[in-house]
Automatic annotation (TrEMBL):
The keyword Membrane applies. InterPro entries: DUF1232 (IPR010652). It comes from Rhodococcus oxybenzonivorans. It is a multi-pass membrane protein. It comes from the Bacteria. It is found in: Endomembrane system. This is DUF1232 domain-containing protein.
Length: 133
């Protein structure tokens, strides 16, 4: 169970790195991108424990943590590459939902990393309608 969660988080991290490199080539050092995974995990944990956020958001984040730790997935993890892609997709969708409902300021308030890392995560978590503005 823990191995599956760790592997799912690692794949999410790799997909995040690829997305960041494609979205903003050359704007963020690779070392900063590598540091995002622990910060994203701490962010989700902090958001889930924030009593000032609406209950629905905290429930979504708690369910996300349980989903990542659970050995049962939509696509089994033993399938190469796509086995962990569902985990990464779920994390991205939940962060996007949290950003839409609670606002980018909630992410900023709980972000434990660098300002560049926060900007990268907000870029991925930001709903597409707000990116153009």
């Amino acid at each position: 169970m823990i191995v599956g969660a760790a592997a799912g988080i690692a794949v999410f991290w790799l997909l995040l790195v690829v997305a960041l490199m494609r979205a903003n080539p050359g704007t963020m050092p690779v070392t900063d991108v590598l540091r995002l995974l622990p910060d994203v995990v701490r962010l989700v944990r902090r958001l889930a424990g924030d009593p000032t956020l609406p209950r629905g958001i905290r429930i979504r984040l708690t369910l996300l943590l349980i989903y990542l730790a659970a050995p049962i997935d939509v696509i089994p993890d033993f399938i190469p590459v796509i086995g962990y892609a569902d985990d990464a997709l779920v994390v991205a969708l939940v962060l996007r939902s949290v950003t839409r409902r609670a606002g980018a300021h909630a992410l900023a308030r709980h972000w434990p990393g660098t300002p560049e890392g926060l900007a990268a995560v907000q870029h991925i978590a930001q709903p597409r309608a707000h990116r153009r503005a």
